[in-house]
Every structure is written in C-alpha cells, then in structure tokens.
Amino acid sequence: MRKIKYRAWHIVAKRMCPVTRMTFGRLGIVYSEELINTINDVELMQYTGLKDKNGVEIYDGDILAYKTSSSCYSKYGEKHVVVYEGSSFQCEYQYGDLESFLSDMTIEVIGNIHENPELLTLAK
Description:
- By secondary structure, the protein is mainly beta.
- It has a single domain, classed as YopX-like domains (SH3 type barrels), CATH 2.30.30.290.
- Helices cover 5% and strands 48% of the residues.
- The longest helix is centred in the last third of the chain and has 6 residues.
- The chain is globular and about 45 Å long.
- The relative contact order is 0.18.
C-alpha cells in the first residue's frame, strides 16, 4: 500500500514545505509545525509512492529527466512533468501510468514546476 503524503508550495513565500498534517476546518494546512495557512495559500503536491534512481521521492509537479538503456540521450535529454490525470500519476506526453513508465527507464528528479520553472521551457 502506498504511503499518502504531501508537500506544499507556499504561493506567497515561494517556498516548498513538507506537510505534517491537514485539517479541513478553520486552520487549513500545517507544515513544518510552524506555519498555518488556508488551502488558498498553498498548492498541494501528492507523493506518487515512487522514487527515482537516487531514492528521491517523486511528487506531482516534479520534473523528471530520463534516458532509456538503449538510447544515447544526454543526461537531461528528455524531460517530463509528473501529473495526476484520470486515476493515476503519469508523465505528460507519455501513455500509461508513471510506475510502468519508470520500469524501463533511468529516471532522475531534476526539479519541480515551482522552484525550477526554467526547466519547463526545456521539457518535452
């Protein structure tokens, strides 16, 4: 069973924070046990339950670089953004779920859509 966890991009402070708990009342989201915000102040990103080749957890909104074992791509020759679509996590512009996509690739998290937007112009 996949562990359910989130991280939050604080829109105003422009920083990524781990989510330690959520309440759906007056307080909203608590992260790092220090900040309390409403859901409108953050963008939540869910953990996919998967890790890259270096053991880094993969979240919705992460930018992945990969190369197939048979390709000659440069280290960051192919890039994809992780999205939740339908009922599963997927890489944009790929067919099938993220887990099957990872099974035959060498995948590395190289950033995310909030902290590294410059990578989006390079993503395919």
